[in-house]
Amino acid sequence: MDLSEQIDKRRIPKHVAMIMDGNGRWAQRKGGERIFGHRNGVESVRQVVEAAGELGVEYLTLYAFSTENWKRPRKEIDGLMNLLTNTIANETKKLNENNVRLLVIGNITDLPNSVQKHLAQSVNSLSVNTGLKLVLALSYSGRWEITDVVKRMCLDAKSGKLDPDQIDSCLVESYLATSSMPDPELLIRTSGERRISNFLLWQLAYTELYFTPVLWPDYRKEHFYEAIIDYQRRERRFGKVSEKSRVFTNNS
Ligand code: IPE
Ligand code: IPE
Ligand code: MG
To answer: Which residue among 23, 69, 156, 183 is the active-site one?
Structure first.
């Protein structure tokens, strides 16, 4: 049976976040340079965007470049930025055909002008679409985001727009880069690493974590289906007692 048939279509997560990891190791195993791995990761992005769209996921957030990734060798960063520009330019038509909207989170002004320009054009031309919202995290980190929130809240407090007594978690959320999105129900990380690496630190508070040894350039639709099936077997409790044990307690 096709794996996708095992998925309960009524319980699709609204927001799936992904840490696309393992490109360098994939390239190394093939005897190529790291950028060879990044290039081959583009097909994996196509596959998850298609799979998520077909399943009816509303938001797919992909960690494409972290704040800390700026510390990589210049050659790799330049290669990644070129790849980003070319991929956005080449894929926008296909994204449009698939009714995908594009959103970007991160410190965008850190990106080279050409990347910013292509991103803005693509975001704009896809803005009327109503299907999957593809969120690219670029020059992003959770600590950068939270620091930025604190800064903007302080400025608003200083100018009298914000009363510190009114600050609660809802208000903090309204300042996040993801303020228009639900928190991810599921986080997938490839390549066998089991860490968050400064991804959506606030938003992942109650997210289900799924780790797979598959390296990003090998990642295909079936791997995405496996993660959704695994997620659907879990019970999310949000600090409360289990639904099952509540039934048990009530009956006893
Ligand atoms: C993920 O693959 C892509 C980015 C972080 C941009 P890596 O480049 O981190 O690959 P590994 O972890 O070194 O194998
Ligand atoms: C996380 O992967 C960042 C992205 C996938 C963009 P890294 O490869 O940078 O993370 P670490 O260094 O293994 O924690
Ligand atoms: Mg890595």
So the answer is: 69
Is residue 62 pLDDT above 50, yes or no? yes
Q: What SS3 class is residue 189?
A: strand
What global pTM score does this model have?
0.96
Establish whether residue 208 lines the binding site of ligand 1, counting it when its CB lies within 6 angstroms of any ligand atom. Answer: no
Rounded Cα distance, 40 and 45, in Å: 9
Q: What is the DSSP letter of 204?
A: T
24 Cα–ligand 1 center, Å: 5
For all residues of the chain together, what is the average pLDDT? 96
Summarize pLDDT for 108-135 with one digit per residue, the tens.
Answer: 999 999 999 999 999 999 999 999 999 9
| CATH class entry, domain 13-140+183-234 | alpha beta
Cα distance between residue 71 and residue 230, in whole Å: 35
- Encoding tokens for residue 74? 């210049």
Whether the pLDDT of residue 68 is over 90: the answer is yes
Sheet holding 133-140, edge to edge: 101-105, 133-140, 59-66, 15-19, 186-189, 208-211
